[in-house]
Amino acid sequence: MGNVYSDRIDALRSIMERNGWDAVVLSGSDPHGSEYPAARWKQVEWLSGFTGEAGDLVVTMDHAGLWTDSRYFIQALSQLEGTGVELHKTRVPGAVGIPEWLSGTAKTVALDGLCWNVDAVEEIASALGEGGLVVDVPDLLEELWEGRPLIPVTPVTTLDVECFGGVPRADKISWLRKWMLLEGVDRVLLTSLDEIAWMLNVRGSDIDYNPLVISYLLVSQDNVRWFAKKTVSDAELDPDTLDSFSELEMDAVSVEDYDAVFFALSDFSGENRPVRLFVDPSTLNHHLYSCIRDSYPSDCLISGTSPVILEKAVKTASEIENLRQTYIDDGVAMECFLHWLDEEVSSGREVTEWEASEKLTSFRSEIPGYRGNSFENISAYGPGAALPHYSTPREGSAVIRPHGLYLVDSGGQYLTGTTDITRTVPMGPCTPLEKEDYTLVLKGMIDLSMAVFPKGTAGCQIDALARMPLWRAKRNFGHGTGHGIGYYLCVHEGPQSIRYQYNPQPLLPGMVTSNEPGLYREGMHGVRHENIVLCKDAGKSEFGEWLEFETLTCCHFDTSAIDFDLLDKEETAWLNNYNDTVYRTLAPLLPPRTAAWLRDRTMPVKA
Q: In whole angstroms, what is the distance from residue 552 CA to residue 123 CA?
């Protein structure tokens, strides 16, 4: 007897049989290449029950498979049970990707071209080889998905850069137009939602935890056209939204209907020569690209990496100053939460993972400028923490006991920046193995924090600094060590990263990146320590220019679970200095009892 997901897959197979498709491939993304899609595009979740943020699904007549990475292996095995969907592991030795797997299985592959980027579809088509066929079926699940959510429409706000940092919208548009002149292109199409939000200094809430507006942006030397699911004449829009659009019009930005982008890209009225259009195939969806391709000669359609990605990643001086203060404010919320948790659990009261998560959100909500969480809180005790992206259940979540390790990974969206922090908290006595794992991960985080490296160094070249303490003990973790972080934008952004997979992007002064090594033991515990670091200049020598990290996160590390035989003197000195700085910075801002508690938790320790 099947369940709801196996029944849905069977219904999809009926459509496949009717159309002569050998396979259907579904993406976990949306028409804009988003990591976190709106509910309308959670097609993988609707069809399989898998709720992780990274996962693609392949269905053939006799097989259904989910492709995801190590962050979700345990979660996927649990959620896919009984669905008939098998787990295919990615980013592990010997992994077989979707294109390669399809090459020996299918000849005709259907996909929703709105939710696959150009690069991915071309890779699938190439793998199918001669005689293979990729069929683009926009909204492929529409006839099956009863009550499918619509494209969301939420109020749009514009940022006051004088108050909240950054660069005026008009200056950004001028910068992009200068880039266009230098590159010899007439139009630039931006499809990534965080790039559009950054360019226009607009924010919305079309996607949970991400202050974005689902839209496209087309920039030329003569006009800026923003295609969104809202118009100035929409009677449902509130006054704040109308004011936002008025501000856009003052900077010569026209607001048009979301679907009008298809016509706009093929409209050449008033043009007396061929128009060269620049697109980024890593975020441009295949369906829109196919429509564009029919309108432009091949030499007029220019593909490349959007220049906005790097410009957005290097924060301005005003943004950096605001971020420093934002991480202090966020640290106040964290310390109030950790003090509350310590008192509640030590008093014998039963606190669940869900209650703890809600309490942390309540502390953050008291901070001026708070606009919501930057992702769903990960509040995990014991075995739950062994899932790197554990989803805390509202009902039946585990009770946090006065022993072992509790992991909380969380962040906030503020008008003055985006935060992300993980603390693994000893709730009482810990086993020798828990202490060893806790210390080795902390040791790696400290070693990366202290890094000094030559200008031009990429994150993949220093990733080993955070892993070496674990590697020496023959331990490891599967996820990356660091990701870029937006400024009141997405909690994950590029182009930089710190991970062992090759990424040639150098770390640049002004980039804000996470530092979060971890270790996970299935069924036992998980450890992750995460601070956010700012890349900055470290001076010059006869050997060149140097860079280093400044830690922005302001929240102490608990020393009660540390095995000090594993920390050297330099690491211990860094830890003592960091904890002391946290206390001196936050104590004046904390309630007296919390400040006294923090003083006890940040007393210096000896190597």
A: 40
